From TrEMBL:
Residues 49-58 have a biased composition (Basic and acidic residues). Residues 1-71 are annotated as: Disordered. It comes from the Bacteria. This is Argininosuccinate lyase.
Length: 71
């Protein structure tokens, strides 16, 4: 059963469904991007983590905006 389900996937180029088209070309581009280009992400869209997680607990600095609720 698992082999049957695993083998039913289609391998091939992505194409838009009938009656639909790819998005228009961006401003300044000579031709619209193809499906492979649209699936590729820019480095700014998926940035790497730039902060290191804290490994030990540290004392928090005093926060002047951490006020008790008014009641």
């Amino acid at each position: 059963m698992a082999l049957t389900l695993a083998s039913c996937g289609r391998i091939g180029d992505l194409v838009p469904p009938e009656g639909a088209s790819l998005p228009p070309a961006p401003y300044g581009a000579s031709e619209p991007p193809d499906a492979a280009r649209l699936l590729r992400s820019e480095p700014t869209a998926v940035p790497e983590r730039s902060v290191e997680l804290r490994r030990e607990s540290e004392e928090r600095e005093d926060d002047p905006f951490d006020l008790p609720p008014e009641g």
